[in-house]
Amino acid sequence: MTKEFKGSINLDVRDSVSDWDAFLPDKAPKGAPNVLVVLYDDTGQASWSPYGGRINMPTMDRLAQNGLTYSQWHTTALCSPTRSTFLTGRNHHLNGFASISESSTGFPGYNSHIPPSNATMANVLRDAGWSTFWVGKNHNVPIDEWTAGASKKNWPLAQGYDRFYGFIGGETNNWYPSLAEDNRYIDQPYSPEEGYHLSKDLADQALKMIRDVKQTEPEKPWYLWFCPGANHAPHHAPQEYIDKYKGMFDDGYEAYREWVLGRMVEKGILPADTDLTPLNPMPQGTFSPTDEVRPWDELNDEEKRMFSRMAEVFAGFSEYTDAQVGRIVDYLEESGQLDNTLIIYCADNGASGEGSPNGSVNEGKIFGGYPDDEEQNLTMVDKLGSPDTYNHYPTGWAAAFSTPYKMFKRYTYQGGVCDPLVIHWPAGMKARGEVRHQYHHSTDIVPTILEACGVEFPDTYNGVEQTPLSGVSMRYSFDAPADGQTAKETQYYEMFGQRGLWHKGWKAVSIHGPVSGVSNFDKDEWELFHSEVDRAEAHDLAAEHPDKLEELKALWMAEAEANNVLPLNDLQIIGNPKDFETFVGMEFHQPVPPSGQYVYYPGTSEVPERSAANVHGVSYKILAEVDLTPDSQGVIFAHGSRFGGHSLFISGGVVTYAYNFLGIPPEDRISAPVPTSGKHIIGVEFTKDGMGPNREGIGPLKLFIDDQQVGEQKIRTVLGHFSLCGEGLCIGYDSADPVSSAYPEPRFEFRGGEIVKVVFDIADDAYIDVESHLAAAMSRD
């Protein structure tokens, strides 16, 4: 709000009195804390050492030993929705984030645009005198605003953050990330060969931001939201961290579940009588088959070696990132800021089951609907975690790292929503090294931070009446008894059609897996758990307490109506034509020009794949207008990475179009001698005249120079996406991870001539395969 001017104004400045206080921003209360929130991805409680897991987290252990570990802290079961609750303190449907941005639909709870009535905590803290920073993963920018030319009103700077450095989508290559700084896309600062890893880069940037503030405003507190790419796929880590875990998961995920349950009890996380739930707990037909777990003793020796190595890589990735967080904590201690910094260290949902029963060395195959070649995967076991792979572990490890609970990420059982949380604030809490069992949720983080900072959320913001915060502060629990009563009474859950509700120690969950296509929500059977005594949700009491179940079901419906949860969406977009057609009518459509032509120019940043010309599953023509010299070389256009993409480039006196099918060797290449100097049109034409057994496009590819065909061969093209996030369309260079192994150098920028423009034409086949488009979208959580 504008402050009142308390000076005086007369004709002559000599007779007037100035009032600087009317124009200067508010200052935070004296002694107000800094706030550091560390939010990992895709991590079940049973993963990490503070909870008894095998993955060593020295920084988190240190904070837990001098702070509090929460045993019953919960999330929404999915990435973007949980993160939206950290942004605003409101339930995810109220934020428009029922799901991830890429699977938005045109309903109030599902559109991924946070309404003005849900102002962010960062705005409030900044107005109250804090510096505000967001480093790492975003995934809360609506899909229609990802491009360089789109509105930035939902980018971090407009959401109250003074600075942003990270990636916009749900995941990125940790060796070759797609980065943004503030309101623009940028190139990564150096290469993996020079020591680059995303986790390290993010910590470097976070430290710069904090140091800059303290250099000029030493008394000003700050709020930093630090969101590493870990532990979301792809699982990438330096080899020395992967090797730390060699052999540590050879006993398999079922043995791990038995082992870690005992450790969790020993740590005081779970009651001694907690039972282990079944590995595959849901009835057939109520969930997606891709979420099944293969029993360990049914695997052959090579599969066991591969699956164990995938867990080792995941563990190394997690610990390496914890070490980067440790650099921030070390700096806070050295600079005297640690004691009065409220540190919240947690994860956004349960362990990820997106790896399917067999895992993958390139998860793009899973989400593109193309089967993994297990034999080929096995040849890559020693390259897992390196730039050569884009790996994800199998569902068995998701179940293990979510022990003792049912299922994992996306499910509203505890396996999807019960997550690790450690809070450290020596200046604000007396307790040290204790466990807290009060039931809480991610909507409670904003109220907790605000109370700790002595800041109230306003009733109106920028003239807009605000929706009340959905959560309650956890501040009371800092010095409460470990088993003291929780301040929370009710929390609803919903994800992709599965429903749940917790109320005063009881929880009801529908037996209806996410994205299952079952529909018939009014006929759902529900389970009832007395979570106060059955933390694992192992014992269904619906038959014994039908009245309690009906009470909770009715309460769920009331919460749904109050939070924009309806209509429920469990559409099974793969293998269900009717559901597929329904979704097509609801999803966000990137408009196709009437001509079917997209024109691109050099000197521009990469175009995100969802906003670029869609050449997947269609016939297409690509025409590049160039002015060549004898020295011309480099990439004319490139889209994708070593894990899938296509590129047109000149090297060694030859012009080549390379199509990289999901990283499966060999690349399809068609080449011809570079034409003489001067203006030319270099073009390719792909005609889809059939489909392969996995719906990949098949047909002839022709290479043209001016009006002459200079080459032809048959190729196959991907139906889904080249990448899940990042690796957009580039003109005059290849971003980050190269599409083709034939380049003589990274990026291979065009020089020795001019690219006038590149035209993509899909006018003759403007069909967009939305089914695969959506399959990839659902993976980006």
Descriptive keywords:
eleven-stranded antiparallel β-sheet, Arylsulfatase, C-terminal domain, 15 helices, disordered C terminus, Jelly Rolls, alpha+beta, globular, 781 residues, 22% strand, Alkaline Phosphatase, subunit A, single chain
How much of the polypeptide forms β-strand, as a percent range? 15-25%
CATH class descriptor of the largest domain: Alpha Beta
Indicate how many domains the architecture comprises.
3
Topology, number of strands: 28
Q: Count of DSSP helices?
A: 15
Can you name the CATH architecture of the largest domain?
3-Layer(aba) Sandwich
Largest sheet: number of strands, sense, barrel closure:
11 strands, mixed
What is the general shape?
Answer: globular
What percentage of residues falls in helices of 4 or more residues? 10-25%
Low-confidence stretches: 766-781
Query: Remind me, CATH topology of the largest domain?
Result: Alkaline Phosphatase, subunit A
Q: Give the N-to-C terminal Cα separation.
A: 37 Å
Mean pLDDT, rounded to whole units?
93
What structural category characterises the helix and strand content? Answer: alpha+beta
Query: What is the CATH superfamily label of the largest domain?
Result: Alkaline Phosphatase, subunit A
Radius of gyration: 27 Å
Describe the fold and architecture:
There is one protein chain. The chain has 781 residues and is of the alpha+beta class. It folds into three domains: 34-237 and 257-280 and 319-353 and 408-487, Alkaline Phosphatase, subunit A; 498-586, 2-Layer Sandwich (Arylsulfatase, C-terminal domain); 597-762, Jelly Rolls (Sandwich). Helix content is 21%, strand content 22%. Strands 1, 2, 3, 4, 5, 6, 7, 8, 9, 10 and 11 form an eleven-stranded mixed β-sheet that branches. Helix 6 packs parallel to helix 10. The two termini are 37 Å apart. The model is unreliable at 766-781 (pLDDT under 50).
